[in-house]
Fold this protein.
Amino acid sequence: MKLFLVSFVSIIGFAGLLYGGNFLSDNNLIWPATFLLGAVGIFILYISSQQMSKAKKIHQDILKKQEEIEDKQSFLMLNVSEEILKYTKETVDRLNIISKNKTAIEDIDEVFNDTIKLEKSLLDITNDLIDFLRLKSKKVDILNESFDINNVLNDVIGSITNNFKNSNTKLILDIENDVPKKFIGDSLKLSQILLNLVERSMVMSPNDDVKLSISIFKKPVKNQIDLEFKINDSGYGLSEDELKHYFIPHYNEKTGKLENIGLFVAKQMTKILGGDLDIQSKKGKGTLIALSIPLETSETPESNYNLPSEYIGNKKVLVVDDSYDSSLAIKNLFNYFKYDARVDTVKSFLGNKPDMYAYDVVLLNEKIFDENIVKLITSIRSSKELKVISLNSMFETQTKDFLYQNNVIDRRLTTPLTQQMVFDAIVDLYDLNLKDENKALGAAKNIAKIPIFRGTIYNKENISMENFQEFENINILAVEDNIINQKLLTAILTNSSINVDIANNGLECLDKIFEQKQQYDLILMDISMPIMDGYEASINIRNDEKLNSLPIVSLTALVLDTEIEKMYQSGINAFLPKPLKLGQLYTVFEMFLGHKKTTNLENKVKKEKITQLPGLDIEDGIKKTNNSEILYNEVLKEFLDAYGNSAETFEILVDEQRYEQLKMLLLDLKGLTSSVGAYSMFKLSDEVFKLIIFNKKHLLPGYVKAYREKLDELSYSINQYTMKK
């Protein structure tokens, strides 16, 4: 390039000398001018050639990147299919062991628990499949609704508690004091992202602490902020190679499990929300995940955690939990109210016995309590007021009930704690009568006239959707923000001639009851919802005496004792945990509705059960979706949205000889069609895929018509099946 420029300048200079020195006559100037123009043309052609080369390279890089992304997604789908097959087979095998009693009685419980775990894994992988299809078909809508950050955290804690029972890991929440309570954004997706990330850290740290820190990443501009979540664990850590593939799903040959699918979904969801997701790790040193999400604040002075002025800044608090980091995080929550909070380690507390007389509130890990501690607390209370709170881990199954029975403790809290939990604890300890928005955090003014059932709802065996026909023509209001859960409930109940109305949040629920004057026999109430949560909605219903005979049953992932007790105080009559079990839902209907229809089910004409349609093995597909017709129905609809028009894409890729992209499409279809029991389409996709692999591409045009016909057949069958559900 330099040589070319030097030559070019020399030519111009020489031409200038000839012209300026009159060495040539005017008539002879045409030759230098022509030579000069030729040189300029060569230069322009050279520059143009360089630019075209660069543009071509950029285009090739983009295509390569796109192929890599599609390859990763296709590999994911193939592995999802294999994972579903694996879990389905193992679940069926274990159920056969139980039904045929091939094992000793004492081993039955173990086999049964293994079966439940496998069914949970199958349900998770099916939900991941739905998430992937939604991402693929660009059906992921962003919601901008007001939500409470505490509800998001409660959802995550509840799901983690269910998924990691008896875990030795300590989950810690560390929330900065300037983090607002209310935001505007998509709380459902934020909850899903956090759950997937925290679950992964829990797996990587089986015997260590996992800390979720929440802070404001950047100073607010008007009402816009970036909320940052840092998930820090001291577990196994990752190598450089593992770090590169952290958000890429893959099949682990050693463990026989599909890994990182939830992380893939979290990464994609973060991009959709306009956020950033990064990771730092070192083998043997733990991992740090940093998530930042842009949100809008919806704070008003009344919507914060407002205590009466006399209860702010004049209390001394001692915190002693089994993890020092956990104690520091709890101390930080009390500092919000300007309390003078101090922490101590369990070892130091037991060895030095600090002067508890100096404190107004003490929070002690429940394991610390012994006869001497109880005597000390009793002695202090003889001369001053001392509030005592016991702390238990979310995974702790055993509690010292004598502490409550003997009035040693005033309240039991389950860690990790949120700011709302600490606020509620202070309100409860000092029996504060709050006004305005904070009043919704207390108990309902009126008690329901129907009984409250505080135990675990019995999961009645051998219940199917047909059993709900006993309750036909009753009116149910399902208050639920998750569209999949809405569809599940609607499919179960409407098939039994039960009238189901849907409210997306607590405010819509109140509007239907008070403004639209709708009449319902029972309300199924989710708790963690945007705009207005289930607590506040239930309290507003109970504050109208005319509605005290209306049963409200919570249907939620929250499982902490403090949250469940708060449900009852809000006027809720019973608690159903997610995921929904038909037997428990049936028991709830029996408890609060009685048998509305006395006709024996045996005398009713049952709908003909469809097991096969052209190109679709329905029975097999249902087995692969946790034996749930409703979930299977949803997967089929999502498949049709994502790939129902792929025949045109197939034809274009064949005509334009874009074989790599065609290969990726076929890999997607192989994984998906196998997962839904569409074996005719699977066979065709596999056949075409092998033509590409074995370099018989000249035969591909002959498959364009066959592809369209098989897809039309499958689409028709899917529409036939889903319309009958």
Observations:
- Confidence is low (pLDDT under 50) at residues 1-26, 98-119, 436-441, 598-607.
- The radius of gyration is 33 Å.
